[in-house]
Structures are given as C-alpha cells and as structure tokens.
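$ ./design --mode recover --in tokens.txt
reading tokens...
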C-alpha cells in the first residue's frame, strides 16, 4: 500500500492526540495533518494532497460539505462511530463517507486494516454496526416493494454478506470468486438500490423488503 497522507477532524482532543500518535507509528502513513477547524479541512481538501480524512463527533455534520466541494479529487472519508451510533445507525445512512471504524475496536491493527481497505475501494463497516442496523430496521420492511428492484441470485448473496460487514475480499472468498469480481457485484448492488454506500444499501433492502435478512448474522 502506498504511503498515505491522513488528516484528522474531530473535537475530542484526547482521541485526536492519541490517534495522531497511533497514525505516526503506522507504516502506511507518511503525513498526519491535525485540522482544528473546518477552514483547515477545506485547505487540506483543496490541496488534493490528503488521501484519507478521519472524522468523528459533531464534525460529521460537515461531511456533506466536504464531499460536495466540487474538487477534482477528494480524500476518502473515514467516520469514527461510537456506542450511540451503533444504537441508532439510521442517522449514518445518508452520510457520503467511505468507511466506518468503531472507536471501541480501535487498535493499531484495526486502524491499519481499515486504512488498507478504504484505499482499495472497500467500505469497511463494523459488524456491530451492521447487526444493529438489521435489528433496528428489520421489522420495518415493506413486502409490497419487493419487485421494485430486481437482483440476481449472486447480487442477493452479496447483499446478505454486506449486511455482515464483510470486505470485498471476504465476499469473494465466500462466493468463490475474485476480489475484483466481488467489487463488481457490490457496485452493481449499490447502483440498483440507488445507495451511496453499503450502510444505505442494507437499510434500503430492509425497508423495502427486497430480501429477507432474518437469517443473517
């Protein structure tokens, strides 16, 4: 994996400083930028040097503005989530982020793996978040909408694996196909469901009753 330029945008100074130290000792990371306000984030994004922007807390309210800034190249956005997010995951569905990391699972290993996944096009999502999503929305499905979207059997399998929070590589292994083949299936599912990310895709499938997730997880 190429050396990464990573920026931090979070109001919790303890978390920010600890994460900064962890990132500086991570082999994939070359530069760590500490953004104390949104103006500094905008400067970082406009420079097109930032590869990954890590966001948490109230700073997430500005994620939409970052993603819609119109720059030719924006950083991948990694959102830190906590216990309150896992209890109410629906608020995350429409955020234009590229991955999630549960603060309770934070370690040098989990951070490095999440950065690796996000840079190869995966949208990492903690299993706890996926399961919470299933539990929260599972009873709100609408069977009458099942015919609104037509998925192939492979796409349905892929959707179930997305709900388990699996990466493209893991999906490929479970389906017996290549990682690139899995990525194509995931992209197809997101396009058919009109979803900006994996979380939104799972929510859409649950709400519309496209597929029965009762056996998942």
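writing sequence...
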């Amino acid at each position: 994996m190429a050396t990464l330029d990573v920026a931090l945008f979070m109001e919790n100074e303890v978390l920010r400083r600890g994460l900064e130290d962890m990132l500086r000792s991570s082999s994939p990371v070359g530069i760590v930028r500490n953004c104390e306000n949104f103006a500094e984030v905008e400067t970082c994004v406009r420079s097109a040097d930032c590869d990954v922007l890590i966001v948490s807390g109230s700073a997430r309210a500005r994620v939409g503005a970052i993603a819609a800034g119109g720059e030719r190249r924006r950083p991948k956005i990694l959102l830190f989530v906590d216990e309150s997010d896992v209890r109410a995951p629906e608020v995350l569905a429409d955020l234009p982020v590229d991955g999630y990391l549960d603060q309770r699972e934070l370690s040098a290993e989990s951070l490095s793996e999440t950065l690796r996944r996000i840079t190869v096009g995966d949208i990492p999502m903690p299993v706890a978040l996926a399961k919470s999503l299933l539990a929260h929305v599972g009873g709100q499905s609408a069977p009458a909408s099942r015919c609104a979207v037509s998925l192939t059997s492979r796409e349905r399998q892929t959707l179930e694996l997305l709900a388990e929070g699996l990466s493209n590589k893991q999906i490929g292994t479970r389906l017996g196909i290549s990682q690139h083949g899995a990525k194509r299936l995931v992209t197809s599912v997101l396009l058919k469901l009109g979803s900006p990310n994996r979380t939104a895709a799972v929510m859409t499938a649950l709400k519309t009753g496209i597929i029965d997730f009762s056996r998942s997880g």
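exit 0
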